[in-house]
Amino acid sequence: MSQFTTSWPVIAIAAEGFTVASIETYKTFFFPHKPRGKFAGKPILFPEHLERRKRFVPLYAGIWALVLGHLAWALLG
User: Fold this and answer.
1) d(Cα 19, Cα 71) in Å, to the nearest integer?
2) What is the pTM of this model?
3) CA-to-CA distance for 54 and 59, rounded, in angstroms?
4) Cα–Cα distance between 19 and 53 in angstroms, integer?
5) d(CA 60, CA 58)
6) I need a labelling partner for 21 at 20 to 30 A (CA). Which of 13, 47, 58, 61 fits?
7) 3-state DSSP call for residue 9?
8) pLDDT 10s per residue in the chain (77 long)?
């Protein structure tokens, strides 16, 4: 982000957003059966949603590809 702006608040907000997005992606898709945060230690009440989540993986991967593709395009262009 520092390649595109000199504004420290913009750089900080963009970095925080990317950090949260990457951490949540990691936790959601690599540990899908482990409740996190305030739900840790509680039973999974709707396990059918874990299977339904798999249908959205291609869309989620496409969004990440779009974000990273735009980053590469911006850095190279």
Assistant:
1) 15
2) 0.68
3) 10
4) 22
5) 5
6) 47
7) helix
8) 778 889 999 999 999 999 999 998 888 888 888 888 888 888 888 889 888 888 988 998 999 999 899 889 988 97
Q: Residue 40: left if φ>0, alpha if ψ -120 to 50, beta else—which one? A: beta
Amino acid occupying residue 7: S
7 phi-psi bin (left φ>0, alpha ψ -120 to 50, beta other): beta
Contacts of 25 (CB under 8 A, 6+ apart): 60, 64
Is the separation of the CB atoms in 1 and 15 below 8 Å? yes
Report how far residue 42's alpha carbon sits from residue 38's, in angstroms, rounded to the nearest whole number. Answer: 9
Which of 53, 52, 36 minimizes the C-alpha distance to 44? 36
